Amino acid sequence: MKEDISAVDFLDIINIVKLQYGYDFAGYVQASLKRRILRFMSRTNISTVFDLKHRLINDSELFTHMVQYITVNVTEMFRDPRFYRTLREEVLPKLAAYPNIKIWHAGCSTGEEVFSMAILLQEAGLLSRTKLYASDLNPMNLEKAATGIIPLDNMKDYTYNYIQSGGLADFSNYYTARYDNVLIKKELRKQINFFQHNLVTDTVFNEFQLICCRNVFIYFNRELQNHVLQLFYDSLSSRGYLAMGIRESMRFANIHKQYETVHAQEKIYRRKS
Amino acid sequence: MKGAYDIITIGGSAGSLSVLTMLLDALPENMRMPVVIVLHRLRNVESEMGRLLSATKKIREPEDKEPVKDHHFYLAPQNYHLMIEADKTFMLDYSELVNYSRPAIDMTFSSVAEVYGHRALCILLSGANKDGAEGLCEVIAAGGTGIAQDPQTATFEAMPQSAIDLCRDVKILTIEEIIKFIFFET
Ligand SMILES: C[S@@+](CC[C@H](N)C(=O)[O-])C[C@H]1O[C@@H](n2cnc3c(N)ncnc32)[C@H](O)[C@@H]1O
């Protein structure tokens, strides 16, 4: 049967990671974080929580490795095609009014989401005057994202998603295939800046007309969700847009009154003033 | 015993839709506890499943952090694992496939075992893989009740059969017996 981590051990692990490495996971949803720590232990043959704590204190490389396991890095291009269709039809035409557009993808993982956005912007003729900021807490994800390389196997799904999102071009124009991978065209990537930013501990660094933070909130407890929603509020220009994952909701956060709903189903909100 | 459970969780895969519909048809609209359904569905394809099921009962796909409420029927949304947190709210998880599936029945059962312990009733229906078996056994180990659809009556027997093979004390019931069990024992 499945081994478990006691509440005390769990807090110990969180504290070691925070004190020694500066990453604060205290506001993460426990069920999934515990599961991922256990998964990391079994993959790396660490059999007891005692061993894990001991090694975390003495071996910083182990921690680097652990981060890769405990953050959920799964992502897709044009995931939830209807969301991208709504961006195309309702949000981008509004952004077009700004001479310079700034968009932030918080929790961008390996880049698939921001590449999709770049394609939308290109098709709307807005890419050259847009700056895309793509951040994540996990440095390995960012390294991968910066290469612009995606496994070829995924392209079939992504092409399907792209068409569903209302894309009319030949999707294969946006990449070049090399053996088992594809390389997203340089011209799509040149406006993107990948950098490390931890939503829990780092602060406002710029002002945006649109922030996409999708499928990151699900890993945060309500208190942390509020904290991050405040950070986004402070990072949005007046009437700026915020997009969350389609199963995420602002309804359960206290701060929701400061945002108005633009599209309830696609979870697109807007700063009220 | 009446009042013995605080939640009913049902997992199904290939061949489960018809028995599930039968089961839902038989249940009253106003159950005393929440009923949470996890079905394997095709990824990224707008599925008919939700609509088919809602024809029999008012079923909603929960959002992240939504409280788990009595009297409600829930269906795990496509492409996310569905878990329940200690404070009885839903948590959606977009992590790797488990048993080639997302949602994975194991993920839901396992969290239900942890949060509800002996007050959980979990039911595993027809299916062609072994998802749900481990979770069902965790539910039983935590003192809850685990039912597997009698493999002889299942369109695909692999799923209930793997639960039966994996741990003792799984109740093996036909769909009619499952309905009776819910009526008289919950
Ligand atoms: C499931 S992925 C979502 C990727 C993409 N946004 C999407 O929806 O497809 C979650 C990402 O959030 C990142 N993340 C988790 N906690 C974070 C934090 N505190 N600050 C920034 N990024 C974080 C993870 O490293 C991971 O890359």
Automatic annotation (TrEMBL), chain A:
Residues 1-250 form the CheR-type methyltransferase domain. InterPro entries: Bact_Chemotaxis_MeTrfase (IPR050903), CheR_C (IPR022642), CheR_MeTrfase (IPR000780), CheR_N (IPR022641), SAM-dependent_MTases_sf (IPR029063). One of its GO terms (molecular function) is S-adenosylmethionine-dependent methyltransferase activity. It comes from the Bacteria. SUPFAM superfamilies: Chemotaxis receptor methyltransferase CheR, N-terminal domain, S-adenosyl-L-methionine-dependent methyltransferases. Gene3D superfamilies: Vaccinia Virus protein VP39. Coiled coil: none annotated. GO terms for biological process: methylation. SMART domains: MeTrc. It comes from Chitinophaga oryziterrae. The lineage of its organism: Bacteria, Pseudomonadati, Bacteroidota, Chitinophagia, Chitinophagales. This is Protein-glutamate O-methyltransferase CheR. PROSITE patterns: CHER (PS50123).
UniProtKB/TrEMBL annotation, chain B:
It catalyses: [protein]-L-glutamate 5-O-methyl ester + H2O = L-glutamyl-[protein] + methanol + H(+). The active site is at residues 13, 40, 131. Pfam families: CheB_methylest. GO terms for molecular function: phosphorelay response regulator activity; protein-glutamate methylesterase activity. The keyword Kinase does not apply. Its EC number is 3.1.1.61. One of its GO terms (cellular component) is cytoplasm. Residues 1-178 form the CheB-type methylesterase domain. This is protein-glutamate methylesterase. It is an enzyme of class 3 (hydrolase). It comes from the Bacteria. Gene3D superfamilies: Methylesterase CheB, C-terminal domain. Keywords: Chemotaxis, Hydrolase. The keyword Coiled coil does not apply. InterPro entries: CheB_C, Sig_transdc_resp-reg_Me-estase. One of its GO terms (biological process) is chemotaxis.
